[in-house]
From TrEMBL:
<dbReference type="GO" id="GO:0016491">
    <property type="term" value="F:oxidoreductase activity"/>
</dbReference>
<keyword id="KW-0963">Cytoplasm</keyword>
<dbReference type="GO" id="GO:0005737">
    <property type="term" value="C:cytoplasm"/>
</dbReference>
<comment type="subunit">
    <text>Homotetramer.</text>
</comment>
<feature type="domain" description="Enoyl reductase (ER)">
    <location>
        <begin position="14"/>
        <end position="332"/>
    </location>
</feature>
<comment type="similarity">
    <text>Belongs to the zinc-containing alcohol dehydrogenase family. Quinone oxidoreductase subfamily.</text>
</comment>
<keyword id="KW-0560">Oxidoreductase</keyword>
<dbReference type="InterPro" id="IPR011032">
    <property type="entry name" value="GroES-like_sf"/>
</dbReference>
<dbReference type="InterPro" id="IPR013154">
    <property type="entry name" value="ADH-like_N"/>
</dbReference>
<dbReference type="Pfam" id="PF08240">
    <property type="entry name" value="ADH_N"/>
</dbReference>
<keyword id="KW-0521">NADP</keyword>
<dbReference type="InterPro" id="IPR002364">
    <property type="entry name" value="Quin_OxRdtase/zeta-crystal_CS"/>
</dbReference>
<dbReference type="InterPro" id="IPR020843">
    <property type="entry name" value="ER"/>
</dbReference>
<dbReference type="Pfam" id="PF13602">
    <property type="entry name" value="ADH_zinc_N_2"/>
</dbReference>
<dbReference type="InterPro" id="IPR014182">
    <property type="entry name" value="ADH_Zn_typ-1"/>
</dbReference>
<dbReference type="InterPro" id="IPR036291">
    <property type="entry name" value="NAD(P)-bd_dom_sf"/>
</dbReference>
<dbReference type="GO" id="GO:0003723">
    <property type="term" value="F:RNA binding"/>
</dbReference>
């Protein structure tokens, strides 16, 4: 089967050797696995981080978001059957989805929304799971709750932000404030449902006060947390909650003490990495998201389609993700 691999660690994406087209054997499913024929994939910051990291050894297949068709099932599989159209974000402990066929545990897979094609569906899983777990599991907002509270989303135009804005606006009563620094991305965040959009390249507190908002109860910091941290502590109300998904080199939590602020990390790979008892929750979550998509409550966050799944197009996609200027998700479709 065809696949895209990186072999040499830390190469800049401009180097043709950073991602390469390869052929490898088609895998066979384990007891709870689906063998998925991959139709489309999307690119996430985690893809670029793993590629640019300290990997050594055999070729590594990147990619976790995928949409495709279930072709074979393991002997213990109960949730799917061959021929099902599926979408998912796989496990970071297993080979990735930049391949014609891919193995994934059924407990982290959902049935693809009926109203979407493969490319539109592939844009959703990783960011939908991250946004859902961050909002409801980590920040502790109840569905239908949040009346009188405000959520500030730093980096609202990216993949996770694009889903988080929608979930918070559609499924809670929070006042949703997104940040973006360009006209294009600001308009995107408004279209997704944010009540207000402010510029994260300018001081935050003054912009919030200009909206009549003295403080916020919750912050979702999706990017450059270390740069914004002091301001986030400043704008959070006492006993507020800060949720983080990025990778600051250091984070001094002592400033949180005075306000009794709580810090919450979200990594959507945790359940699959540790095979937690509630791992199937991600299957249930993706099933729910598919229903909300088909009802028209949520929309795909596909931002740009970069063509066929090959190394040249994937290098272009990684470069755009690394630039920090991507809007929504970048998707590639078909081998």
């Amino acid at each position: 089967m065809k696949a895209i691999s990186f072999i040499h660690k830390g190469l800049p994406i401009e180097d043709p050797a950073s991602l390469q087209d390869i052929f490898m054997p088609k895998p066979s499913p384990g007891p709870r696995d689906l063998l998925v024929e991959v139709k489309a994939v999307s690119v996430n910051p985690v893809d670029t981080k793993v590629r640019a990291g300290t990997f050594t050894g055999e070729p590594k297949i990147l990619g976790w978001d995928a949409a495709g068709v279930d072709r074979e099932v393991g002997r213990q599989v109960t949730l799917f059957k061959p021929g099902d159209q599926v979408y998912y974000a796989g496990s970071i402990a297993r080979p990735g989805s930049y391949s014609e066929y891919h193995l994934v545990d059924e407990r982290i897979v959902g049935h693809q929304p009926r109203s979407l094609g493969a490319a539109q569906a592939a844009a959703l899983p990783l960011t939908a799971i991250t946004a859902w777990e961050l909002l409801f599991d980590r920040l502790g907002i109840a569905e239908g709750g949040g009346e009188g509270d405000a959520l500030l989303i730093v980096g609202a135009a990216g993949g996770v932000g694009s889903m988080l804005v929608q979930l918070a606006r559609q499924l809670t009563r929070l006042t949703v404030i997104g940040t973006a620094s360009r006209a294009e991305t600001s308009n995107w965040v408004r279209e997704l449902g944010a009540h207000h959009v402010i510029d994260h390249s300018a001081p935050l507190q003054g912009q919030l006060q200009a909206l009549g908002i003295e403080s916020v109860s919750h912050v979702a910091s999706l990017t450059h947390t270390d740069q914004h941290f002091a301001q986030l502590v400043e704008v959070l109300r006492p006993q507020g909650r800060l949720g983080v998904i990025d990778d600051p080199q250091t984070l001094d939590v002592m400033p949180l003490k005075r306000k009794s602020l709580s810090l919450h990390w979200e990594l959507m790979f945790t359940r699959s990495l540790y095979e937690t008892d509630d791992m199937v929750r991600q299957h249930e979550l993706l099933e729910r998201v598919a229903g909300l998509i088909d009802q028209g409550t949520l929309r795909t966050t596909l931002g740009e389609h970069f063509g066929a799944i090959n190394a040249a197009n994937m290098r272009r996609a990684h470069a755009l993700v690394e630039s920090g200027k991507a809007r929504g998700k970048i998707v590639l479709e078909g081998f």
